[in-house]
Amino acid sequence: MVTNLQDDQDAQDGQDAQDSQDTPAPQHAPDAPDAPPPGCPAHAARLYGPDFRRRPDETYQRIRRDGGQVAPVLLEGDIDAWFVLGYRETRQVLSDTETFGRDPRRWNGWDSVPPDWPLMPWVAYSPMMPFTEGEEHRRRATAVSEALATVDPFVLRGHCERFADQLIDKFAPRGRADLVYDYIYSVPTLATAELFGLPQDEAGLETLAAGLTVSFLSDEEAIAGQQRVAGYVAELVRAKREDPGPDLTSRFILNTPDLTEEQHTADVMVLMAAALPLTSYWIGNTLRLMLTDERLAMTLSGNRRSIGEAMNEVLWADSPLQNLIGRYATRDTDLGGRRIHAGDLVVLGLAAANADPLLWPDTPVGHAGNHSHVAFSSGDYGCPAGGPETARIIAETAIEVLLDRVPDLTLAVAPDELKWVDSFWYRCLDSLPVTFSPTPVTAG
C-alpha cells in the first residue's frame, strides 16, 4: 500500500541502512547537459501517449540518455515539469521536505492547466493528508500508522485465503479466465472492504474499485471517477463517526477527533486509493512475470523460486507505482545539475530510479533479498509503517492460493499481445487471459 503518508522514520532509516549493505552505492552522475527549463516543449519528452503506455522503461532510458538524472518533460496536455530519474536524486527529494514541499498551491504552472486535466484528481489541492505539511502532516500520518498497527496479519491472511477460494471457484471449472477481471482486482477489493469496514455489497464495492481505477487513468473520466469514490467514502465515514467498529476507518476517526468530516473522508479515500490499486497491480505484474519469464516458469509448479522473490523483482523492475506527482520547490535550488526554480513541479520517477544504471554499474547482481527500492516511496510522505506489509500479505496470499488451486496456468496469448492500461501513475495490465486444467470447486 503506498501513498504520500508519514512513514515510521526510525524503522525506515534502519531498513535503509540494512539495504545499503546489499545495494551497490550509486555513483556520482556527471552534470547533465544544459537544457532549457520547463516551458520549452521542443526539448522535453512526453510522459504520455501510446509509446509511453507500451514501454515506459524505454521512455525513461531515452529521457535519461538525452537529459540526465533530472530532465524537463511534458505531462498529459503538454504541461511542463521536471522529471527525477536518478536514484540518488529521488532519495534526496523524498527526504528534503523543506526544499521540496507537498502543497500544490505552490505550483507556478497552474495557469496552463485546463480544468478537465486527467491528472487533476490527485494533484489539485484538497484537504487530504498528502497535501499537509509540518506538524499537521505528522499528526495525521501518525494516526494512520497507529490504525494500521492494529491489523492482525494472521487474521488478514485467513480472510484473503477465503476470498481467493471463493473467486477461484467461479472460474476453476471452466479451465480459462481473464485474471484481471476475475481475480486480480477482486481479492484486494474484498480485503479492503474487510479492513475498512465496508458493507459486503457487490454493487458498492464495484463502484469503489471502478472509481479508484478510473481516477488514475489518463482520460476524461478520471475526475468523475474520483468524485464517485468520494461520495461512496463520505457515506462510510458518516456512518463510522456515528457508530465506530473494529476497522481502520473507525480507528483513524477515533485517533483524529479534531478533524472535520470532510478531512476524514479525504484521508480515508487516500488510504483506499493507496491500498487497492497498487496491491491489485502488484498481483497482476507478478503473475505476468511468472507466466512469461523462463527463469520463473518453474515457480508455477516446481517452486524453483519463491513467490516472494518474484514479487520483490517486480518492485524493482516492473513497479506497479511508476511515477508520483509531486513535489513543489519552495525556493530556487539545484538538483542533478539542473536549476530548479521556486514553484516548479518535480515529478518523481520511482520506476526510473529503481532502474538507475548508476545504482547497478556492473552486471546486475539480482534483486533477491534487496528491499532498498523506492517502489513504496520513502521518507515523511512514504508508505506508512505497516502499509507495505499489509499489501504484501494480500498480494502474496492471492498468488499462493491461485497457484495452489490451478498450478498449470498458461498465458492464453503471446506476451507481446498483452495490453496495458493508459495511466501515468501506474503500470498495470488491461487483461491477463489464461488457460488451465479445469478443477473442482472447494468443499464448503
TrEMBL record:
Q: Where is this region: Disordered?
A: 1-55
Composition bias, Low complexity: 14-32
Q: Which GO terms describe its molecular function?
A: heme binding; iron ion binding; monooxygenase activity; oxidoreductase activity, acting on paired donors, with incorporation or reduction of molecular oxygen
Its family remark reads: Belongs to the cytochrome P450 family.
Q: Which PANTHER family match?
A: CYTOCHROME P450 YJIB-RELATED, P450, PUTATIVE (EUROFUNG)-RELATED
Write down what this protein is called: Cytochrome P450
